[in-house]
DNA sequence: CGGGTATTGACCGAATCGGTCGATGAGAAT
DNA sequence: ATTCTCATCGACCGATTCGGTCAATACCCG
């Protein structure tokens, strides 16, 4: 990716976004270099000029995504926040920060997880194994779940919120720019609703 | 699809499921007939023997899915049930009945909605337009939303449940048979949780 | 104007595409 | 046993698309 470095930033973004999008929606094999070039707004020859081969492009993108996620986590993760909803709000903020920079990163990473093409599968497995550490850091352990009313299972609440947030994201139209504030607002509303009805009275502000 | 009719039922299912899965995960253009044949467990020549052309196959599947959904709706929809949660439970039961018969139907139908290949796009548009009636019937209007506590927005609750159910479904491993009872149990749990905390006391027996 | 260098259209052999067809073989009927 | 039927498939077709290359052009800076 070094050859990309001295391009205008918006062009870089356009190219990586197009490539990420193509790979995440079509998988490694079915995402042709022509597709990628079209999605990136450049000619096919330029893709090879910038990245060498299709495989190198894929692996470069892998590293690229990882760097951005790691950076966002290190920037925003705070283990001192223990309140259940605040923790989830923080995790969502991290996701959203990543998403705002490159909307296709998260779907690329999750598609990577299911990628099976023998040309890249071993590298992916090695990569996933090597970033196990990050997952441990992100694991939402050490949360304070004592404020819930009886009969409310924190894990269920977490699942509800995770799925709701996935729904918001996948609902975003692919064409338009992402609107982080609107998303945060909608998500906060749901969190507040659950908090108000699932926390014991004494913990409502 | 007439040629399929006198095959053993499990073979029919295997073939349609494979084709539905290929199209829904790869789209019309990128789902090659070889892919479909492999996913269906038959030779490529048989695909053409059964369906004529790739396009006919796609359109046949479209009708096939529609028939099953219509049948499930007519069988299970009851407009007399007005309670919010019961309505949602009913809609989920319909979805689940469809899913249990052919796990790829719903994802095929939703992928259809985004299909843009000029070879099938006009037929899809016509089809969608012609089945508008069904959507009106399914629209969850006429629900009783008076039992909610103040400050609880029924639309938000519905969104939570819809997304939660989507989460359950997409979480199912693609390889194994679907377990409707386990899904219903998990979903009922969440519905009960929300009902217990969002309905006014007087409606909780 | 000259000299890089960023960018591309045209092209390569190989692979894959949608689709065809003759060979094979199991089963039913005679 | 023999013929007929027909489901099934491997091998093949011409056409397209694949990943990748390269000579030529467009463009920028001095």
Fold and architecture overview:
- The structure is a homodimer of 205-residue chains.
- The first copy, chain A, has 205 residues and is mainly α.
- Chain A has one domain: Tetracycline Repressor, domain 2 (Orthogonal Bundle), CATH 1.10.357.
- In chain A, 70% of the residues lie in helices and 0% in strands.
- Chain A has 10 helices and no strands.
- Chain A has helices at residues 9-30, 33-40, 44-51, 54-76, 84-101, 105-114, 121-130, 132-138, 154-171, 180-198.
- The termini of chain A are far apart.
- The mean pLDDT of chain A is 92.
- The A-B interface holds A 26-27, 30, 149, 151-153, 156, 159-160, 162-164, 166-167, 189-190, 193, 196-198 and B 26, 30, 149, 151-153, 156, 159-160, 162-164, 166-167, 189-190, 193, 196-198.
- Chain A binds a DNA duplex (30 and 30 nucleotides) through residues 32-34, 42-46, 48-49, 53-54.
